[in-house]
Amino acid sequence: MSKVDFNTFEWNPELIDRYNLAGPRYTSYPTAPQFHDGFRSGEFAAALTESNATGAPLSLYFHIPFCAKVCFYCGCNKIATKDTSRCEPYLHRVYQEMDLATQHLDTSRVVNQLHWGGGTPTFLSHQQMHELMQETRKRFALRDDDLGDYSIEIDPREIQADTLPLLRELGFNRMSFGLQDLNLKVQEAVNRVQPREMTEQALQQARDLGFRSLNLDLIYGLPHQTPETFAATLEEVIEMNPDRLSVFNYAHLPERFKPQRRINAEDLPSPEDKLTILEQTIRRLVEAGYVYIGMDHFARPEDSLAVAQREGRLHRNFQGYTTHSDCDLLAMGASSISQVGPTYAQNHHDTEGYEQCISKGEFATLRGMRLTDDDLIRRAAINQLICHFELDGASFGATHNIDFDQYFAKELKQLQQHQQDGLLHIKGNQLLVTPAGRLLIRSICMVFDAYLDQASLGRAFSRII
Fold first, then answer.
1. Which parts are annotated binding residues?
2. How open is the CA angle 108-111-112, to the nearest 5 degrees?
3. Is the pTM of this model over 0.70?
4. Known binding positions for [4Fe-4S] cluster
5. Radius of gyration of the chain (CA)
6. Where are the domains of the chain?
7. For domain 36-332, is the CATH number 3.80.30.20?
8. Does domain 1-30+372-465 have CATH number 1.10.10.920?
9. For S-adenosyl-L-methionine 2, which residues are the binding ones (predicted)?
10. Can you tell me the distance from the alpha carbon of 12 to that of 422, in angstroms, rounded to the nearest whole number?
11. pLDDT tens-digit map of 391-401
């Protein structure tokens, strides 16, 4: 059976129409709806202690839920304010949360990955950013050789001339810039006016400072977007030459996210136009030399993400695609989700609930779960497919000490339909996703999901495309 060609994909409207149902994004398996409140602070503490036996390196995530302005499309957990002093009580609790973690973790475990997300992490004052990194370094074994992946999300509207030099000095070497769209009418409709020059200057400054793997975030499906206007934005983005691109689908859920109520639903592109935008975007980026990593991610062939995929080392977790499959992920701050050994733990969503728990000297774990052996096997199968678009049943079975054909007999039978429709090649117990199936990989992964309740899919998840 031939190997996956990561530079090819096939757009089949008939198959997309048939398979474009609601489904998980598989940043975890089992997915977040399966987390339960029987897994709390004590269970998470035990998981941290148990994880020391592996000696695995660490990945640290910090959620900074503050923004100076609200973007109307945003569904993130954030607080809109211009007062940076409001961060102080929150940061104090984050330091306390780190202290709690170090009571259970072997702090000599090297931190190979670190990420600040939000919100807008650069909302913090320069002093607060310096202090947060300093407090982290006091407690954990951060790298000093610039070989780790230390990244931060950037809003170019909220940085000063000396912000990026400070971040580089603090040890960051990767950045993700929010852009969304360059069309002024679209920007005004979502309350995020951001001229090209602003983003381009920040990108160039980051390059000059030695940052690598610079990412730009785009969103399709925003008000007033058309295939023509988004194509124009894409050409300008290609000229900026980012190392990576994330092209996200906007999900309009005003009943869940209050800022989205400021968006007029009549101004949104039709479902047909959204699909046209996505098709044109994938084709143009592949034509421009980007590797279509999968779902909504693209990377230059020489980027570490594309290299990891070619070498079979790509992984997927709550931060999306990553090259650090061997790390235990310790996530701190409100709403953050940790993945430690065979467990998941999610903190309280609201800052008040988060801070109350931490102030009592316990983790702010609201819910989570410990995975069963079956969960771990299925997680590995889904990760292999969603990252590498192939699965060798014989080697997988040997790795996980199962008879693959027997263990997944029901799934292999279900996948016959995917094969008949041209999404998958099956030879014995070898699975190879076709160019047409790459766009619909979530549908293939869903066959291996033991928890899916078809009746509730539409309420819990967005459409696959």
1. 61, 67, 71, 73-75, 118-120, 153, 180, 192, 217, 251, 337
2. 135
3. yes
4. 67, 71, 74
5. 22
6. 1-30+372-465, 36-332
7. yes
8. yes
9. 73-75, 119-120, 180, 192, 217, 251
10. 10
11. 999 999 999 99
